[in-house]
Amino acid sequence: MPIVSYLSYPLYYTALTVALLLLTFWIARRYAMRKMKRVVMKAEHNYQQQIASLQMQLSGKVSMLESMVEKLKLSNQELNRLSEIRSKFMSIVAHDLRQPLTSIQGFTSVLMMDSPQGGGNNEQMALNNILKATDNMNQLMADLMDISMIESGKFKMDFKNFNFNQLLNDVFSLQQVNAQKKGIFLAKYEYPNDVTIYADRFRISQVLNNLLGNAIKFSPQGGRIEIRYFIQNSRLVCYVSDEGPGIAYDEQNKIFQKFHQSDNDRSGRKQGWGLGLSIAQEIINAHNGEIGVESPGLGYGSLFWFHIPVEPASFSV
Ligand SMILES: Nc1ncnc2c1ncn2[C@@H]1O[C@H](COP(=O)(O)OP(=O)(O)OP(=O)(O)O)[C@@H](O)[C@H]1O
Ligand SMILES: [Mg+2]
Predict the structure, then answer these.
(1) What DSSP string describes 3-46?
(2) Do residues 168 and 102 both lie within one domain?
(3) Is the CB of 310 under 6 A from ligand 1?
(4) Residues 221-265: tens digit of each pLDDT
């Protein structure tokens, strides 16, 4: 007996429909899966192509960067070489010019002694001017030699124990002569005890001479300059204040750069090269110290300060 006869017709059709539906679903699913696979494969292919082209672009950029780095290295080497030549040239010129200058100074002094004395004498005045000019040139040569030593890393300190009070007295007497010429009052506030520091005496005197020299140079006639020092936290702290033109806020860091002179005071600017403070900063840094300036603004004077350790024990290097 046929199976169909066991089933009622509606049931037979229902089963057939379900079977057909399942088959259609299976075929549709398979078709969809295949299509999806194809889409995924195509996307993957596109993606790989994109990655490959990006990799190519990247490797092009990398090789461009590598060649730029190479070029930079070469120009850097060239720059170092030129900077070395410039430093050497500067120090040779400065050194070789100092010898004839010393001779000119010596012979001028001899001529001054020989020429008839008495104020207003033209010969004496001319000789005096020669001496002043050679002094200025000597100072410039010394500064240029310092700068070339700083640049070549040969700027070495000669550390020894010495009495700071005495050093300041020496610098003070020297600068007093210049201050008096401008009717400037120099006031010194001594620390009550003797202060012995471990430092380079000549270089510290160079810092003090520049700070006091600047204060005198930039102060108006009849101004007042004060210098004070004390010991705080095992450091020697020194202040030089004046009633000069002051320093604009945005100039206060720049004046420590070599050859930088601010435009505030053109009369003082003519008497120098803008090297003193940059050398002073190198000296103070070499002593593990700090140097700076404070000024309330143009027309309100300046206060220069520095501090250095008193003893080698407080040196961090
Ligand atoms: N006390 C001061 N008052 C006002 N401006 C100052 C003072 N000290 C320094 N300056 C400014 O800082 C600049 C740099 O000072 P720095 O001592 O380096 O050079 P300089 O005195 O001009 O020349 P040099 O010291 O080489 O003879 C000065 O030209 C000036 O513009
Ligand atoms: Mg100076």
Answers:
(1) HHHHS-HHHHHHHHHHHHHHHHHHHHHHHHHHHHHHHHHHHHHH
(2) no
(3) no
(4) 999 999 999 999 999 999 999 999 999 999 998 999 998 988 765
